[in-house]
Amino acid sequence: MANKWFETVAVAQRRAKRRLPASVYGALVAGAEAGVTVRDNVAAFSELGFAPHVAGLPAAREMATTVMGQEISMPVLISPTGVQAVHPDGEVAVARAAAARGTVMSLSSFASKPVEEVLESNPRTFFQMYWVGGREEMAARMERARTAGAVGLIATLDWSFSFGRDWGSPHIPEKMTLREMIRMSPEALSRPPWLYEWLRAGHIPDLTVPNLPVGGAPAPTFFGAYGQWMASAPPSWDDVAWLREQWGGPFMLKGVTRIDDAKRAIDAGVTAISVSNHGGNNLDGTPATIRLLPDIARAVGDQVEVLMDGGVRRGGDVVKALALGARAVLIGRAYLWGLGANGQAGVENVLDLLRSGIDACLLGLGHASISELSADDLVIPPGFTRRLGG
Q1: Can you name the residues that pair with 91 across neighbouring β-strands?
Q2: pLDDT of residue 1 exceeding 70
Q3: Residue 282 phi/psi, 5° resolution?
Q4: Where in the chain are the domains?
Q5: How many CB atoms lie within 10 A of CB 206?
Q6: Interatomic CA distance for residues 125 and 120, integer angstroms
Q7: How far is Cα of residue 152 from the mean position of the Cα atoms in its chain?
Q8: Residue 53 designated active-site
Q9: Angstrom distance (rounded) from CA 337 to CA 14
Q10: Are strands 70-72 and 65-67 parallel, antiparallel or unpaired?
């Protein structure tokens, strides 16, 4: 049997591309409009260098930390994403992998698996919500997540409904009808291992979002839910404060790119913020998050936990983010490619690669703990950062 282990996230991406139908892989790559932001998210990390030491290096390195009260073995969390059609076990496989590697799972309200099932696989799960509907619907979804045992809430409010990609968008059906199955069959048949995995599971992707309905309503399709979202009035800062108060526990606001917004989030009582541009899937032309992180962390890092996501592909990227003020990072595409390449084991593989990369950087930089990292460990070119809103 071929060795399914991969040595970098880039290899996982190539294997996922070979294994997944083109439309499924295309949905993972995503991006928006001209792809300026999605490219900059990754490329910006390459502009930063390291300043290593040569001797007196620590024999052991500590990577454990806490995020919103949860102890994690390393400063990497699973970011909330939809994993429709990537793998039959979907978010459950991801949650199991996160649990096996000692970190937090974040579950999207647009996920393909129910929150109750995911919590059974990883009790350290944050539930993520978009503002869909009104306060009554939002309160009902929060209560369901609380009852299931979610230990934190993430509100993602930065989406601007950008659409259109210069390279074209993949065909994703609203429902897997007979007609759609016939249409998709050439793609599926061209990827026998992926097709066999779904056939062995005894079902096909149903493309519904079971965590969105309230009051006993049936789960809407992904695009049906997206339509509800588009029709919802954008939330105000009063709504953010209301969400935090209604949840009554650890609360993260995801999608912050500006200092003034970070300060308003603190005024609303959040526990944490994630410096995020939605992985480059939102408003194209937004700077890379690693460029935005330093000024935001300096402005509010002593008042709130600051995380970041976007473009993280290796342990060195995690270390660069921590050195510039992040408490931890969230990963998205990296683990999705691992899931697409090799299921739960592939996600564990990705987390192991990040851990070993963090450890190698700590050793080279002469630090015994991630808490010792600072900007002095990096080579930062002039004009690297972007300061927005302050």
Answers
A1: none
A2: no
A3: -110, -115
A4: 9-373
A5: 14
A6: 10
A7: 15
A8: no
A9: 8
A10: antiparallel
Catalytic residue among 53, 87, 203, 278: 278
The fourth-level CATH superfamily of domain 9-373 is Aldolase class I (3.20.20.70)
Summarised one tens digit per residue, pLDDT across range 367-378 is 999 999 999 999
Measured distance CA(14)–CA(340) in Å, rounded: 10
Structure-block tokens of residue 317: 């990227």
Q: Is the pLDDT of residue 217 over 70?
A: yes
SS (H, E, C) the chain: CCCCCCCCHHHHHHHHHHHCCHHHHHHHHCCCECCHHHHHHHHHHHHCEECCCCCCCCCCCECCEEECCEEECCCEEECCCCCCCCCCCHHHHHHHHHHHCCCCEEEECCCCCCHHHHHHHCCCEEEEECCCCCHHHHHHHHHHHHHHCCCEEEEECCCCCCCCECCCCCCCCCCCCHHHHHHHHHHHHCCHHHHHHHHHHCCCCCCECCCCCCCCCCCCEHHHHHHHHHHCCCCCHHHHHHHHHHHCCCEEEEEECCHHHHHHHHHCCCCEEEECCHHHCCCCCCCCHHHHHHHHHHHHCCCCEEEEECCCCCHHHHHHHHHCCCCEEEECHHHHHHHHHHHHHHHHHHHHHHHHHHHHHHHHHCCCEHHHCCHHHEECCCCCCCCCCC
Q: Is the pLDDT of residue 252 over 90?
A: yes
Bigger pLDDT: 280 vs 383: 383
Lowest-confidence pick of 49-58, 95-104, 198-207: 198-207
Phi first, then psi: give them for residue 321, nearest 5 degrees.
Answer: -65, -45
Contacts of 322 (CB under 8 A, 6+ apart): 75, 328, 329, 370, 373
Query: Does the pLDDT of residue 149 top 90, yes or no?
Result: yes
Pick from 146-160, 172-186, 190-204, 326-340: least confident: 172-186
227-242 tens-digit pLDDT: 888 889 999 999 999 9
Please give the model's pTM, rounded to 2 decimal places.
Answer: 0.95
On average, the pLDDT of the chain sits at 94
